[in-house]
Amino acid sequence: MSARTVPVRQAAVELLSVSKIHGRDAGAIRALDDVSLTFDSGTFTAVMGPSGSGKSTLLHCAAGLDKPTSGTVRIDGEDLSRYDEAGLTRLRRDRIGFVFQTFNLLQTLTVRQNVTLPLELAGRRPRRSDVDALLARLGIEERADHLPGELSGGQQQRVAFARAVLAEPAVIFADEPTGALDTNAARDVLHLLRSAVKENGRTIVMVTHDPNAASYADSVIFLADGRIVDTLARPSAEAVAAHMTRLGEGVR
Amino acid sequence: MTTSTTAIRTRNTRPTNALLLMALRSLRARPATQLAAGLVLLIGSALLTALAALLETGLAASGKDRTLLIRLPAILGGWSLLIVTFGVVSTVSLVVRQRERETALLRTIAASPRQVQILTLVEVIATALPAALAGLVPGVLLGRLLLSRLSAAHAVKSVSALDDGWLTVTVGAGVALTAAVAGAMLAGRRAGQVPPVAALSASAGVDTAGKALTRAKVVTGGVITLLGLGTGMSTLAQENGPLLSSTAGPAGVAVAVGLALLAPAAATAGGGGLARSRSVVMRLAGRTLKTRARQQGSLIAPLTLLIGVGSGTLAMQRIEDSQPATDGPHLATVNYLIVLAIVGFAVVAASNTLVAATRARGHDFKLLVLTGATRRQILAVVGTEALITTVIAAILGGVATAVTVLPFSVVRTGTLIPAQAGPLFVLLVAVALAITILASVPTAVRQIRATATQ
Ligand SMILES: Nc1ncnc2c1ncn2[C@@H]1O[C@H](COP(=O)(O)OP(=O)(O)OP(=O)(O)O)[C@@H](O)[C@H]1O
Ligand SMILES: [Mg+2]
Predict the structure, then answer these.
(1) Has residue A44 got a pLDDT over 90?
(2) Cβ of residue A31 lying under 6 Å from some atom of ligand 1
(3) What are A207's strand-pairing partners?
(4) Of A52, A109, B289, B339, which residue is the least packed, with the fewest Cβ within 10 Å?
(5) A219 is in which domain, residue-wise?
(6) Which positions in chain A touch B11 (Cβ < 8 Å)?
(7) What are the helix and strand counts (H, E) for chain A?
(8) Does A1 reside within a domain?
(9) Is the pLDDT confidence value at B2 over 50?
């Protein structure tokens, strides 16, 4: 599967009128308010918005980690509401990869074991040489037998990325993947994400607060109060920052 | 750096292999926790082994020896069973719960609820099996000691050697192991239901989610408490004789276990009361108690058991010792050993919970420092929490003690409140307070110090 063989854009993830209400009664918060959108296959989308605007909630619902209160989520055309927990687990294993800000890796397993875990739990053992080749491309082959605690934040994030791409998922979700990294490490990870999309036709949805990180994406979606308020194609860091400033004023 | 790649080649494997690897790794990574849990199991297994060996010896004997050697373990066995089961199940669930975040991460990336259950089971058995087997050795030694005490007191005449065969092994190690497996299945089911998003929320680790008390716990706790109260009342109807402790002892144990199960409710109530206090330290402590009622419950529970069963059993034994010419002395060693086992369990379980809970709050402490709380204030809050926890456990444990001691004393000596009970109760409350303070304050000091150097 590569970008060249997919001339017609297909929807990797679709959300149809998705709403999510956290809590109930007096404490209820409408974190997503009737959101409809499509992430096309082979695209890199950034999701931005003020803190509390519902970015993480959007990601969790889109990835089947959390159930929307109403609306439909489809991954690769499959309606998530038709799956039970075990089914969702299988779907996550086969079609979805995750990279999060922190707490990404199991601290008791080595880098290699972390990377192959999802596949092994699915009953498939990847060839060692393939895994090593992937780690080598990410520049962490020498750390393959180390524990995550012995790696830098940027290296850990690359391990998480290796784990996410190994099963060749339909879509990779990343929630502030560079949030805990310094500028250089962040740049490496962002290059990695972008080349996965450009060269391998992967689909990536990334939540971020950083206009510079968002500028690596093909397009940016802006959320405020649980609604999509704006989108920006081929974003530059300056344009994104300007948008964010306006959003901040609009909210106040 | 590019990721261009040909497809990853895989061959089929059994997911169990990955689960086994993970289980072994995580056991190795937490030696202290495993050791603590193993110790609880070992003590339990030893206690039951000793009693089973006496029973097996009794079954092989004849005449009066047979009657005594069957009756004695039958009386003590019931409540030892209850304590060991409770101790093992709650320790196992504690160990599993401490890894909630890791479980959630597993669920996010790959593992089905079933796989999480299997993982839990494998991990528990890996610790429980060696511990339960290891308990056989001290158990048999303990059985021999008990038998020699009985012979020395001329209660047992013709039996000289302990008959420790299959029954002993099966009951001793088997019961402890079964309790551990049952605990693992319960805890594993819960762990499988941990929502994956729990791995991702910023404040995870300070787990406030989940109900403080499940309906099953309320019902079980309520029923066991009522059974205990009923048994306690029935002591009053007994005639003054050697069998008196056979209802008084279990009554207190049942009440202690029942109330221990209901402990989260007590934490909520106590915390709610304090949250209205004038002192800021009291208010902070009260709020923590209330929002973390579930964890506080698993802390109050072993302390309740310690105070309730400990002071109840010891007071009963002291009264017995002070009485002329009864069967008492035969049971003395056993009773003291049971108390020792309970103290061991309570120390291990309570400090395990507390150290982990205090450590998980490092982030909170840091925030408190940043928002202007002094070091002294934080330590005062932690100390106050320890004090309140102990007070709640003392109240619950006090009820259990009363259920054991009061009816027993009325029938045996004719007085309602025996002189022996007060000091013993105070002593055990002091032990409980020492455990809570020693397990929490030094940990908090270390946390704050780590914050200061960052
Ligand atoms: N489990 C929950 N229970 C109750 N409310 C929640 C829960 N999770 C999120 N919320 C609320 O839903 C809203 C959206 O939260 P969300 O985490 O999606 O925001 P976000 O855009 O990711 O913010 P940030 O940039 O700060 O990470 C917030 O108001 C938040 O308080
Ligand atoms: Mg977020």
Answers:
(1) yes
(2) yes
(3) A47, A175
(4) A52
(5) 11-248
(6) 124-125, 127
(7) 8, 11
(8) no
(9) no
Phi, psi of B45 (to 5 degrees): -65, -40
pLDDT for res B205: 42
Cα(B28) to ligand 1 centroid in Å equals 36
Q: What is the arithmetic mean of pLDDT over A107-125?
A: 87
Most confident of A25-29, A203-207, B186-190, B244-248: A203-207
Q: What is the mean pLDDT of chain A?
A: 87
**What's the total number of domains in chain A?**
1
Is A201's C-beta closer than 6 angstroms to any atom of ligand 1?
A: no
pLDDT digit string, tens, across residues B116-146: 888 888 888 888 899 999 999 999 998 888 8
What is the SS3 string spanning B90-103? HHHHHHHHCCHHHH
pTM over 0.90: no
Q: What are phi and psi of A219, to 5 degrees?
A: -150, 160
Question: Ligand 1 center to residue A184 CA distance, Å?
Answer: 29
Report the percent of chain B where pLDDT is more than 70: 90
Q: Where are the domains of chain B?
A: 16-202, 211-454
pLDDT tens string A147-169? 888 888 888 888 998 998 888 88
Minimal CA–CA distance to A177: which of A163, A168, A169, A167?
A: A163
Under DSSP, is residue B279 helix (H, G, I), strand (E, B) or coil?
coil
Whole-number Å distance between alpha carbons of A48 and A216? 13
- Determine, for residues A89 and B112 on separate chains, whether the beta-carbon distance falls below 8 Å: yes
Q: Report in angstroms the alpha-carbon separations of A197 from A147, A168, A173, A193, B164.
A: 28, 12, 13, 7, 69
* Minimal Cβ distance to A127: which of B9, B108, B195: B9
Q: Are strands A204-207 and A171-175 parallel, antiparallel or unpaired?
A: parallel
**Residue A177 belongs to a domain:** yes
Which residue do the tokens 């593992």 mark? Answer: B111
Question: At residue A244, what are phi and psi to the nearest 5 degrees?
Answer: -60, -40
pLDDT in tens, B400-410: 999 999 999 98
The answer as to whether A221 is a domain residue is yes
Average pLDDT, chain B: 81
d(CA B328, CA A45): 78
Q: Indicate yes or no: CB of B3 within 8 angstroms of CB of A195.
A: yes
Q: How confident is the model at residue B66 (pLDDT cuts 50, 70, 90)?
A: confident
- In B193-214, which residue ranges form alpha helices assigned H by DSSP? none
Q: DSSP letter string over B344-388? A: HHHHHHHHHHHHHHHHHTHHHHHHHHHTT--HHHHHHHHHHHHHH
What CATH code is carried by the domain that includes residue A27? 3.40.50.300
- Subunit contact B12:A167, Cβ cutoff 8 A: no
pLDDT, position B119: 87
DSSP-derived 3-state class of residue A151: coil
